[in-house]
Design goal:
Blueprint lengths: L1 H7 L3 E4 L16 H7 L10 E4 L10 H5 L1 H6 L3 E3 L3 E5 L2 E6 L7 H4 L14 H18 L4 E6 L13 H6 L1 H6 L4 E4 L5 E6 L2 E6 L18 E5 L3 E7 L3 E8 L4 E8 L7
Parallel strand pairs: 1-2, 2-3, 5-6, 6-7, 7-9
Antiparallel strand pairs: 4-5, 8-9, 8-10, 11-12, 12-13
Organism: Citrus sinensis
Protein name: Purple acid phosphatase 7
């Protein structure tokens, strides 16, 4: 990542959630923050702003710790919020807190305990979140619209399709002509191109090699790599180039997305 980051002269880094495995952080002083973040991403090119969303495993720990400014004081690169917008001039990134959408975590959590502080009024929380996402995308004047969340919407991986997002979030993305949805959750690298949206899974940061890929239409599935790695996106006003890499920086997949210029009315 460091070498590729240097080559591309990256502006920032995005984490798609499950930032601390298996059960998030125990608090603001949990040594896992240094052990799994600060002491890992040491390359000069990665000393940029990191934008992080929460994953379901993060919700199994102290969620408020990851959101705390105390962590930012420990490492100025760290920025984590439930949902937020990043205005990157020609591109706008809308980060969405997807974990509270999933019914299973509430109805059948098994042995897991989730920290639902801040989302106790789940129905209202999700309703407000969806309105905010829809409003942000409708008001965006950016050339590129990218939505980032932890959970998959479309995936041939272990977790597969997240039905709650398919039902509630996807129609908003389609209506607002979103270009890309970037997620983690499935521990693989994956690209599905469907109905004008590129669904990009970058979940190969650590645990991988599940070996249980499901069938997906070959017309839509452009890449499925059941292993560790990462991805990059480089955007201009006329083109976005998506690259997936293995842990050695070898290119696994390249996809170019042209952007037609807006026509005058």
């Amino acid at each position: 990542m460091g070498l590729i980051g240097e080559k591309l002269e990256i502006d920032f880094v995005i984490s798609t959630g499950d930032n601390f495995y298996e059960d998030g952080l125990t608090g603001e002083d949990d040594p896992a923050f240094l052990d799994s973040f600060t002491s890992i991403y040491t390359a000069p090119s990665l000393q940029k702003q990191w934008y992080n969303v929460l994953g379901n495993h993060d919700y199994r720990g102290d969620v408020e710790a990851q959101l705390s400014p105390v962590l930012t004081r420990k490492d100025s690169r760290w920025l984590c919020s439930r949902s937020f917008i990043l205005d990157a001039e020609i591109a706008e990134f809308v980060f969405v807190d997807t974990t509270p959408f999933v019914d299973e975590y509430f109805q059948d959590p098994g042995d897991s305990t989730y920290d639902w502080r801040g989302v106790y009024q789940r129905k209202e929380y999700l309703s407000d979140l969806l309105k905010d996402v829809d409003g942000a995308l409708k008001n965006s004047k950016a050339k590129w619209k990218i939505v980032v969340g932890h959970h998959t919407i479309k995936s041939a991986g272990h977790h597969g399709v997240t039905k709650e997002l398919l039902l509630r979030l996807l129609p908003i993305l389609e209506e607002n002509n979103v270009d890309m949805y970037v997620n983690g959750h499935d521990h693989c690298l994956q690209h599905i191109s469907s109905n004008g949206i590129e669904f990009l899974t970058s979940g190969g940061g650590s645990k991988a090699w599940r070996g249980d890929r499901n069938w997906w239409s070959p017309e839509e599935l452009k890449l499925y790599y059941d292993g560790q790695g990462f991805m990059s996106v480089k955007m201009t006003r006329s083109e976005a180039v998506v690259l997936f890499y293995d842990v050695h920086g070898n290119i696994l997949h390249k996809w170019s997305i042209p952007k037609e210029p807006l026509k005058a009315a």
